[in-house]
Amino acid sequence: MADQAFVTLATNDNYAKGAMVLGKSLRNHNTSKKLVALIGPQVSEPCQSVLKSIFDEVRVVDVLDSGDTAHLSMMKRPDLGVTFTKLHCWTLTHYSKCVFMDADTLVLSNIDELFDREELSAAPDPGWPDCFNSGVFVFRPSVETYGKLLQYCTEHGSFDGGDQGVLNGFFGDWATADISKHLPFIYNLSSIAIYTYLPAFKQYGGNAKVVHFLGKTKPWSCTFDAKSKQVVGSVHEATTHPSFLKDWWILYSSTVVPMLQEQYGDKPFHSGVVEHEESSSSHSHAVQSQQFQVSSEERKQKWEQGQADYMGMDSFDNIKRKLDNFLK
């Protein structure tokens, strides 16, 4: 279907790397759809070149220089700059139907069946299930809808300061009107939700088709030891299931990094990939040290603040082990 496309957005080089991995994961699972990347003007030339080799269409979008209604809306609501940029996906009217995917998502199997759904189809947000998560959604490009969305932004703003608040306000009947527009959670498995309902992840996680790396720490925020195939990241902030994170890094290091190296040539760039195991062992030592230093009261406090040590003592394997013992 030449008039259907997966669409993503990258406003800087870091998110561009995420978009590259997303594009590669869609290609690897043999999508029959077109791939479109909307990018901000801050994305560097080398990254743009790599994106153009992965995606069928790469379009620079900048609301500040657009000269259209988005520009006028921006003047009234400068706080919603990135949101206005994302809404440009509705201007892709040479496509009849699209699936938008955030650049911090990873496809685990073919998901072309999403195009059987109608606008606006999305999965529930784990934080408030009566809202949909705007990391993956089905939509129909339309100049009319685009104009109405901008008008809604200008008049109502966003209850969460981002695109998710705007879209949930605009498509306000999503939770109650049509169950067919509720995508199963496996199409937008939020990595931070794994630990909030571990038995469900154990039961259904193997069917996941898209993983979404929600939270402040993104896959590209970590480092990957190519020799040991281990991800090295912040002990406090790594908020994802290690195997999904490793899948992201293996795809990035094996397919995207060589393309970036070719574009950068002799110019230095930060790939995040290291060729030795020192970082891995020092990270392991740091985790072990922390386990002895953190009291049970401090640990409880960190959990309540959403700062569980997912890569250390609160890792998936440790929680699973305790859960299995409890169930026995």
Automatic annotation (TrEMBL):
Catalytic activity reported: [1,4-alpha-D-glucosyl](n)-L-tyrosyl-[glycogenin] + UDP-alpha-D-glucose = [1,4-alpha-D-glucosyl](n+1)-L-tyrosyl-[glycogenin] + UDP + H(+); L-tyrosyl-[glycogenin] + UDP-alpha-D-glucose = alpha-D-glucosyl-L-tyrosyl-[glycogenin] + UDP + H(+)
Known cofactor(s): Mn(2+)
Record localization: Cytoplasm; Nucleus
This enzyme's EC code(s): 2.4.1.186
Pathway info: Glycan biosynthesis; glycogen biosynthesis
Biased composition (Low complexity): 281-295
GO terms for biological process, alphabetical: glycogen biosynthetic process
Matches recorded under InterPro entries: Glyco_trans_8 (IPR002495), GNT1/Glycosyltrans_8 (IPR050587), Nucleotide-diphossugar_trans (IPR029044)
Coiled-coil regions listed in the entry: none
Any one GO CC term of the record: cytoplasm
Major localization class: cytoplasm
Record Gene3D superfamilies: Spore Coat Polysaccharide Biosynthesis Protein SpsA, Chain A
rRNA-binding recorded as keyword: no
Region (Disordered): 278-304
GO molecular function: glycogenin glucosyltransferase activity; metal ion binding
Annotated keywords: Cytoplasm, Glycogen biosynthesis, Glycoprotein, Manganese, Metal-binding, Nucleus, Phosphoprotein, Transferase
Top-rank taxon, per record: Eukaryota
Job of this protein: Glycogenin participates in the glycogen biosynthetic process along with glycogen synthase and glycogen branching enzyme. It catalyzes the formation of a short alpha (1,4)-glucosyl chain covalently attached via a glucose 1-O-tyrosyl linkage to internal tyrosine residues and these chains act as primers for the elongation reaction catalyzed by glycogen synthase.
Family, as annotated: Belongs to the glycosyltransferase 8 family. Glycogenin subfamily.
Entry protein name: glycogenin glucosyltransferase
Upper classification of the organism: Eukaryota, Metazoa, Chordata, Craniata, Vertebrata
